[in-house]
Design goal:
This protein has six helices and six strands. The chain has 175 residues and is α/β, with parallel strands linked by helices. It is globular, with a radius of gyration of 16 Å. Bound molecules: inosine 5'-triphosphate and magnesium ion. It catalyses: XTP + H2O = XDP + phosphate + H(+); ITP + H2O = IDP + phosphate + H(+).
Length: 175
């Protein structure tokens, strides 16, 4: 099976690769930098979901040989208890309804939340906060905030598993 992923982000690609290995489905993965069609820094669940679906659906139209495409999107969402990291995934299949799954949520420290509300993007803010580079490709904000216990690839793997599981159920496949 050929599966397209709507991102060149290393943590996202690693998550999808690992998940197909874990569920023992043979898949050739093609990564394409797909537009999310939403802001660079989505600011609600709705916007983050839309970004994930747009990426999945867009890359399915781009990669003709793929029967399936996965879009993963990171965002933040306001709650009465602070600004939280939120992550969403979507899986698009030709002629079928796009399926969604959400991932882990974790509160962002106030100093990061303030900078995002002032218009900055989480990726560069995290690099600045940690005095590191390209955290979004490695441990991600979630890795930093959990002391390395859950990195960005592990978090997206869970979403990928929720997506692929729903796809398999719809297809009537069993493991
Ligand atoms: O190449 P793409 O697929 O766009 O990967 P990305 O790292 O930019 O990821 P998203 O667009 O899905 O995330 C939206 C924004 O939030 C940032 N972001 C999201 N989750 C993050 C995380 O865990 N660590 C660091 N930055 C994160 C990211 O850099 C963007 O500014
Ligand atoms: Mg991005």
């Amino acid at each position: 099976m050929i599966v397209a992923i709507g991102s060149k982000n290393k943590a996202k690609i690693k998550a999808v690769e690992q998940t197909f290995l874990d569920v023992k489905i043979e898949a050739s993965l093609l990564s394409v930098d797909s537009p999310s069609g939403v802001s660079e820094q989505p600011f609600s669940d709705e916007e983050t979901m839309k970004g994930a679906a747009n990426r999945a659906e867009h890359c399915l139209t781009q990669v003709h040989e793929a029967g399936l495409a996965i879009g993963l999107e990171g965002g933040v969402t306001e709650t009465p208890f602070g600004l939280y990291l939120c992550n969403w995934g979507a899986i698009a299949e030709r002629g079928r309804e796009t399926l969604f799954a959400g991932g882990a949520r974790i509160r962002l420290p106030d100093e990061i939340a303030h900078r995002l509300k002032a218009g900055e993007e989480l990726g560069p803010v995290m690099d600045d906060y940690m005095n590191a580079r390209e955290i979004r490709h490695t441990e991600g904000a979630v890795g930093v905030l959990t002391n390395g216990l859950v990195d960005r690839a592990a978090m997206f793997s869970h979403i990928a598993k929720l997506l692929i599981g729903q796809y398999m159920r719809r297809k009537g496949c069993s493991l």
